């Protein structure tokens, strides 16, 4: 007699398997958190973007930096590019959807700032355009994507590619990455302050 695994249990099993492999990404999130602390602590800013669920993850990251992750600390400049609906809809209307983030990167990004792009597929045209604009403007371009290889990996300075069988699991691990970056960010600020 065989026992059938429920779809809910199967989802948890997929996440657990992917999380085990993802644990090896800790050095990347550690490095990104330290770099972000140096950039934002020096007056720079983070620009973040994604589409759909990845937009929610990007906004979660910026909220943790402008607000706080765990402990009280100063606010830092972090902008979720998709959250400005007037700009995004005007740019989409006047220049096309592919320019929605790139135009904002050109407006808000300064050399040395960080641009973080989140994408489960790694192939969204508007994020690829943003990566090009970020590199041209001298920003550090980082990507959180789904499985490699993908175009956003190739178009970024650094990428953390999550190997998982579903977009949902990729997004769940992107949230883990966001929190790991915040832990490293806060730890770097604490070291700097002591």
Largest sheet: 5 strands, parallel
The total of helices stands at 8
Number of beta strands:
5
Report the C-alpha radius of gyration, rounded: 17 Å
Order of helices and strands: HHEHEHHEHEHEH
Mean pLDDT: 95
Poorly predicted regions: none
Strands side by side in the biggest sheet: 2-1-3-4-5
> What would you call the structural class?
alpha/beta
Strand fraction band? 5-15%
Shape: globular
Distance between the termini: 62 Å
Helix content: 55-70%
How would you sum up this structure, described in words?
- The chain is an alpha/beta fold.
- Helix content is 57%, strand content 12%.
- It is built from 8 helices and 5 strands; from the N terminus they run ααβαβααβαβαβα.
- It has helices spanning 7-22, 26-41, 53-66, 85-95, 100-108, 125-136, 151-155, 167-193, and strands at residues 46-50, 78-80, 114-119, 140-145, 158-161.
- Strand 4 (140-145), helix 7 (151-155) and strand 5 (158-161) form a beta-alpha-beta unit.
- Helix 2 crosses helix 8 (167-193) and helix 5 (100-108) runs parallel beside helix 6 (125-136).
- The N and C termini lie far apart (62 Å).
Entry summary:
By secondary structure, the chain is α/β, with parallel strands linked by helices.
């Amino acid at each position: 007699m065989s026992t059938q695994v429920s779809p809910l249990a199967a989802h948890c099993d997929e996440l657990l398997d992917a999380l085990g492999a993802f644990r090896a990404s800790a050095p990347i999130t550690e490095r990104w958190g330290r770099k972000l602390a140096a950039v934002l602590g020096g007056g720079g800013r983070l620009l973040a973007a994604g589409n759909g669920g990845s937009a929610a993850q990007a906004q979660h990251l910026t909220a943790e930096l402008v607000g706080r992750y765990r402990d009280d600390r100063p606010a830092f400049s972090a902008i979720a590019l998709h959250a400005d609906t007037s700009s995004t809809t005007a740019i989409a209307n006047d220049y096309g959807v592919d320019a929605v983030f790139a135009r904002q990167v050109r407006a808000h990004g300064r050399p040395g700032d960080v641009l973080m792009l989140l994408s489960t597929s790694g192939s969204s045209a508007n994020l690829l355009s943003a990566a090009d604009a970020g590199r041209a403007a001298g920003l550090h371009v980082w990507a959180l994507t789904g499985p490699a290889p993908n175009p956003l990996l190739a178009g970024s300075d650094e990428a953390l590619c999550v190997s998982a069988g579903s977009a949902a699991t990729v997004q769940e691990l992107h949230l883990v990455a966001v929190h790991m970056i915040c832990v490293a960010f806060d730890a770097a600020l604490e070291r700097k302050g002591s």
